[in-house]
From TrEMBL:
Assembly and oligomerization: Homodimer.
Family indicated by similarity: Belongs to the nitrate reductase family.
Protein's UniProt name: Nitrate reductase [NADPH]
Cofactor remark from the record: Binds 1 Mo-molybdopterin (Mo-MPT) cofactor per subunit.
Pfam family for this entry, one: Mo-co_dimer
Boundaries of every FAD-binding FR-type domain copy: 675-795
InterPro entries reported for this sequence: Cbr1-like_FAD-bd_dom, Cyt_B5-like_heme/steroid-bd, Cyt_B5-like_heme/steroid_sf, Cyt_B5_heme-BS, FAD-bd_FR_type, FNR_nucleotide-bd, Ig_E-set, MoCF_OxRdtse_dimer
Species annotation: Coprinellus micaceus (Glistening ink-cap mushroom)
Residue spans of biased composition, Low complexity class: 43-68
Length: 941
């Protein structure tokens, strides 16, 4: 259940617990200690039991926003924290500003279900659409764009905090959270603790901690040769305030027996090979300085489902994989964890052991020497960002920026920058925001003790900066960074390629491209996940070795060694001797979850016996049962996984799912089939603006209707004719995206798609993968269509369906930009071309760069002219110059515009948004602040 629902269902509980607040509930104690700054430590302590702004030393030392009067409900379970926010209206989520410590970003946790999750096993987990998914739809493994992450500052909001889930998120509802027990077994006093027990028996503490997945920066290794893991960019790192109790305190309480050497942790997630689990050495776990904790809150709020609700282990300065989420069981044992993933994940195997060998020779995984615990030293460049353009006079200063961290509590002691590819280095400035916490001590009911005054270890990332003259940059071919830690560990020049692709920490290099007019474009090594771009792939495509980059050298750098040139396409995915021909009818019998078959590149695979072994969980296979899974499979899997696929090969599909269009849908008056890709031929292309075109595709028959409810979309997929580097590819890659047609349902026999083409440019060298694919199409070419998809349908006459729920609507607001007008236009027609609807009012705010960019303007203006009292149409232009006779708005979408040109929040209102994701996100935030319910009244198309 999303958090907003938690609050709802809790209100009644809370009223009861409020009444019985009695002697057990102690008033808030606030302690402030100031250390350093030349004078001796001075401690003042006060007890606030009435007004939050009493004249306590705390509130006098700095005034507003300090310790609220907070009483948590009983029994305590983390949702109590949220409830408190809601009921007392105090901003308890942030620490008082006067402490002078870095503040937590104010973003509310995500509240909406990403359409990619709808219907899947995580279809109940709210997530931020800005997260870049690294393993298809499921399971959820995701990182923020490096720039978004970095701009958050020291603390990462829950929304953009990276997520690493091996399977589906355990669904823990309120009742389960209330009764959640962490069970101690094995060589100790066997006992179990509810969250209330933990909070009352032990001291509650809050510690700022950076978590890093061991796979951070793995994409760089995967470009060289696909490892056993998926492609993290440099955003697999995030920082939060974690609140809970110290593991060492709890261990002392359960009294480990003689012979106990390891502490084994187990989560509640059910994975193909058992629950997630791993262990710590007891000697480390009992050590207070190591900072390990059992945490129920992140940034002052209950953990989100993705981060381990209701409780997780947090192990500072070690790889993220040790921080077990959804923590259920802790066992004191003579031997280390025997969990499958304790052995088969989070290892750095020796370089000579390739992924194939590692898979066959199991002993490598059981050698304790290859286990990884502490993080290694690492750093990355965030400014300039990938594809950032610098256009500034040579005398200006540009500040290079980035992050650095290490493990084992070790401080980063230097960060060095090279502008000549490592020949000479210069010292960067380093900022350690974590140190601010060493200067204060604070205590309240939500956070417990926030006191690092006695701590010397570094658990968090630091930020480096290096101002440089633009003139100097203009002579550089690359910007390189490396960091060193307290143990004098220095990031290496060369990549330590290893089978799991973990702990990648070679120098982080950003290539500098010099454009005409002294402009520069920057290029990062890779982009996370399947996103294209980065110098590593480019160098590889040019036939050179990406592990030996030479950016400035005019002499061609090291040619690509054959050994590292393994191409995924060379992997054989068929089994020798298998020659059965499988018909589509046979395939169609295997769409169920019991014995799913699927197709990759025309070959059929039977996943029945593999379902429970699949590292991504069985659902990601059953979702594609009976279907062509080529695109998803090829994009996500390693060469090794591809080789493994051969074991499940059972035959070759007769014909192809993609070619066949006349595989008679039952109702052939309708073209679209939600389960099947259907071929459609391009019949004409018409320019409508300098970069937008209308593509008309033929349906099966002249009199056929498309079959698309108003407000829904169609998936289009097509094969690219060129690859991004511009060379002709024998077999182009498949690209796919959802579009809303421009044509009407009553237009029979064809579908028109309005597409704005993002041509390659200096700023965006590859151009839009999909839209460039469109621009390459010639009349007579085929694409494939599938649908309808979407969560919003305009039924007509004031009635709509949102997520399948019927809604009566009188006011429809719409915000769009560019070609985002297409779904909006369909809804407008649904309202104003319906003679039975005489009352529904609509508001449209359409934002474009120049007046010429406004798509479908004639139709919009006509609709508005015909319905002056019901359609409120407003354009805004963001590009200069503004035409002299312009009567509409100027500037980017902002709160004021939304307030003025959209309806006021109301029961019978809704606002639909369609534009670039950042606009959708900020539109949603503004609407929320104006009283709209972001979940039920804001639709992102
Ligand atoms: N129960 C459980 N705990 C888990 C995992 C998991 O899949 N299940 N993934 C681990 C890994 S590999 C990492 S990097 C961290 C990620 O924590 P986060 O998703 O909160 O960022 O959780 C760890 N704890
Ligand atoms: Mo991880």
């Amino acid at each position: 259940m999303p958090p907003s629902h938690w609050i709802e269902s809790l209100k009644s509980d809370f009223r009861i617990s409020k009444k019985k607040q009695g002697n057990r509930d102690h008033p808030v104690k606030v302690t402030v200690v100031e250390v350093g700054k030349g004078h001796s430590a001075e401690e003042s302590s006060s007890t606030i039991d009435s007004a939050p702004s009493s004249s306590s030393p705390l509130s006098s030392s700095a005034s507003e926003g300090s310790s609220p009067k907070v009483q948590l409900s009983e029994p305590f379970y983390p949702v109590s924290l949220l409830l408190q926010n809601d009921e007392t209206q105090v901003a308890v989520a942030s620490l008082p500003g006067n402490l002078g410590v870095p503040s937590v970003p104010k973003d509310e946790p995500p509240t909406t279900i990403d359409p990619q999750d709808a219907g899947g096993p995580d279809g109940w987990v709210p997530r931020d659409p800005r997260m870049v998914r690294l393993t298809g739809k499921h399971p959820f493994n995701a990182e923020a764009k490096l720039n978004d992450l970095f701009n958050q500052g020291f603390f990462t909001s829950t929304n953009l905090f990276f997520v690493r889930n091996h399977g589906a998120v355990p669904k823990v509802d309120l009742d389960m959270a209330k009764h959640w027990k962490v069970e101690f077994t094995g060589l100790c006093n066997n006992t179990s603790f509810s969250l209330e027990d933990l909070r009352t028996k032990f001291e509650v503490v809050t510690i700022p901690i950076t978590l890093v997945c061991a796979g951070n920066r793995r994409k760089e290794q995967n470009v060289v040769q696909k490892s056993l893991g998926f492609s993290w960019g440099a955003g697999g790192v995030s920082t939060a305030l974690f609140t809970g109790v110290r593991l060492c305190d709890v261990l002392k309480y359960v009294q480990p027996e003689r012979g106990a050497k390891h502490v084994v942790f187990e989560g509640a997630d059910q994975l193909p090979n058992g629950p997630y689990g791993t262990s710590q050495l007891l000697s480390w776990a009992s050590e207070p300085n190591k900072g390990m904790m059992l945490a129920w809150a992140m940034n002052g709020k209950p953990l989100e489902p993705d981060h381990g609700f209701p409780i997780r282990l947090v192990v500072p300065s070690q790889i993220g994989g040790r921080s077990v989420k959804w923590l259920k069981k802790i066992e004191l044992s003579a031997i280390e964890s025997q969990h499958h993933l304790h052995f088969h994940d989070n290892k750095v195997l020796p370089m000579p052991v390739g992924p194939d060998q590692a898979r066959v020779e199991k002993s490598w995984w059981y050698d304790p020497r290859y286990l990884i615990r502490d993080l290694n030293v690492n750093s990355a460049i965030a400014c300039p960002d990938h594809d950032e353009i610098l256009d500034a006079p040579p005398s200006n200063t540009y500040t290079l920026r980035g992050y650095a961290y290490s493990g084992g509590g070790r401080r980063i002691t230097r960060v060095e920058i090279s502008l000549d590819e490592g020949s000479t280095w210069r010292l960067a400035e380093i900022e350690y925001p974590e140190d601010k916490f060493r200067e204060v001590a604070y205590d309240d009911t939500i956070y417990g003790k926030v006191d690092l005054t006695a701590s010397d270890l570094c658990f968090c990332w630091s930020f480096w900066s290096f101002p440089v003259l633009v003139e100097e940059l203009s002579k550089a071919a690359a910007i390189t960074v490396r960091a060193m830690d307290e143990g004098l560990a220095l990031q290496p020049r060369d990549m330590y390629w290893n089978a799991t692709g973990m702990m990648n920490n070679w120098w982080f290099r950003v290539a500098v491209h010099h454009l005409e007019g002294d402009k520069m474009r920057f290029e990062h090594p890779t982009m996370a996940g399947t996103q294209p771009g980065g110098w590593m792939q480019r160098i590889k495509d040019e036939g050179r070795d990406p592990t030996q980059p030479r950016f400035g050298d005019p002499a061609p750098a090291a040619p690509l060694k054959d050994a590292s040139a393994e191409k995924a396409s060379d992997v054989v995915m068929t089994k020798p001797g298998v020659n059965r021909k499988i018909t589509k009818a046979e395939l169609a019998e295997h769409t169920g979850p019991e014995n799913p078959w699927f197709v990759v590149q025309g070959e059929v695979y039977d996943a029945t016996t593999y379902l429970n072994e699949h590292p991504g969980g069985p659902q990601s296979i059953t979702l594609v049962a009976g279907d062509d899974a080529t695109e998803d499979f090829m994009a996500i899997h390693s060469a090794d996984a591809k080789r493994k696929l051969a074991e499940y090969h059972i035959g070759t599909l007769e014909g192809s799912l993609m070619e066949e269009t006349k595989d008679a849908p039952v109702d052939d008056t309708i073209f679209l089939n939600p389960k099947q890709w259907k071929k459609s031929k391009l019949v004409s292309v018409n320019d409508v603006s300098k970069d937008s075109k209308v593509f008309r595709f033929a349906l099966d028959k002249d009199e056929q209707a498309l079959g698309l409810p108003t407000g829904q979309h169609v998936y289009v997929r097509l094969k690219r004719k060129t690859v991004s580097s511009g060379k002709k590819a024998a077999d182009g890659e498949m690209v796919q995206r959802a579009y809303t047609p421009l044509s009407r349902e009553m237009d029979k026999g064809h579908i028109d798609m309005l597409v704005k083409i993002y041509y390659p440019s200096n700023v965006f060298p590859t151009g839009g993968k999909m839209t460039v694919g469109f621009s390459e199409l010639e009349v007579g070419d085929m694409v494939e269509l599938k649908g309808p998809i979407g969560h919003f349908t305009w039924v007509g006459n004031g009635s709509a369906l949102l997520h399948g729920k019927k809604r009566t609507l009188r006011q429809v607001g719409m915000i769009c930009a560019g070609s985002g007008i297409t779904p909006i236009l369909q809804v407008l027609r649904g309202i104003f071309e319906d003679p039975s609807d005489t009352t529904t009012e609509a508001w449209v705010l359409d934002i474009n760069r120049y007046a010429d960019d406004i798509l479908c303007r004639e139709e919009l203006d006509t609709l508005a002219a015909r319905n002056p009292s019901r359609l409120h149409l407003r354009y805004s232009l963001t590009g200069q110059p503004i035409p002299p006779d312009w009567e509409h708005s100027v500037g980017r979408m902002d709160l004021e515009m939304i307030k003025t040109y959209l309806p006021k929040a109301s029961e019978e209102g809704i606002v639909c948004i369609c534009g670039p994701p950042p606009m959708e996100q900020s539109g949603k935030e503004s609407l929320t602040s104006l009283g709209w319910n972001p979940q039920e009244q804001v639709v992102i198309f």
